[in-house]
Every structure is written in C-alpha cells, then in structure tokens.
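Data deposition worksheet. Section B asks for the primary sequence of the deposited chain exactly as it was used as input, without tags or linkers unless they were present during the calculation. Section C holds the resulting structure in token form. Section D is free text for depositor observations; keep each observation to a single sentence. Incomplete worksheets are returned to the depositor.
Section A, Depositor: J.P.
Section B:
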Amino acid sequence: MAINAVAFVAVAGGALVQGSASLGANALDFLADSATYAISLWAIGKSVRVRSGAALVKGASLALLAVFILGFAVWRAVSGAPPEGTVITGLGLFGFVANAIAALLLVRHRDGDANVRSVWLCTRNDLIESLVVAAAGGLVWLTASRWPDLIAGAILAVVFLQSAWSIIRQSQAELRAAG
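Section C:
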C-alpha cells in the first residue's frame, strides 16, 4: 500500500503538470491499487462471500477507472498540446521500479482466490503499464506529438477492462459456488 501511495503522489504530480493521459492513467492506477490492497487485507480471513464480494467491487471500480481514462484521453486529444516526453519516460520508469518491488512481494499470491488474485493482477498490470508509459514518453519526445501518450492511455484502459472482466468473472463464479 505504501509503495503505491508514494508512487501515486509522484506520478499524479507529473500527470497534472504535463497533462499526460498515460501518466494520469498510471497515477489513478497507483491510487486504485492502494485502495485494492487495503480492501484485500481487510477481506483476508473473511467468508468466501465477503472476499468474493470485495473482489467484485474491485473489478467494477477497475472498469470505471478504465472508462474514466478513455474519457480523459479523448478530452486530451481534442484540447491539449503534447506533454514533455522525458518527464513521462522518467516517471514511467520510476513506476516500473515501484511496481517491480511490489510484484516481488506478491508473486507467491498470484493464484489465490478472486480477492487475492485481484491484487496480483493489479500489480502485473502496473508493470506492463509502466513500460507502456515509458515508451509513450520516448515516442512523444521523438515525434513532438501528443498521440503516443493518448494511444498509451487508451491501451492501458483496455488492459484495465480486461483485468476487470477477469476479476468480476472469477468473483461471480466464487459467489455462485458459495451458494
């Protein structure tokens, strides 16, 4: 939780200053992950229904996050100038290091119930996301265009939607099995 909270503050600052869709997606995901980890810790040891219900809420919130990111990318496509590519790349790499540390701490939990698996999926997504953000920053810098940043934001939203669907599907199956 602490890793994600610190990363949220750093990346959100960069996103606000730069008006970057990819950094905005990255920052919001760090914030969501902090909340996800807190909910997951709360749910550990509770009934299957409570754990699966918590995972269902997390999956739905991840889907809402994806829709927000897509909306932000569309808004930036219409309204904005290109952000600074080197800042995006630097913060993307910072996010990758933060997420790699979290992934190492969580890798042994990647095959648990929907509640625990949702934490692993969020962390895995963050590793992918950080590399996409860093690459988008490099492309923004090379092309002096905002489009690589906007496309990266949209790609991340699709990754979030896929994970949300996976979490929701597994948590619904666990709720049905719990009766």
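Section D:
The radius of gyration is 16 Å.
The helical segments are 2-18, 21-43, 48-79, 85-106, 114-143, 147-178.
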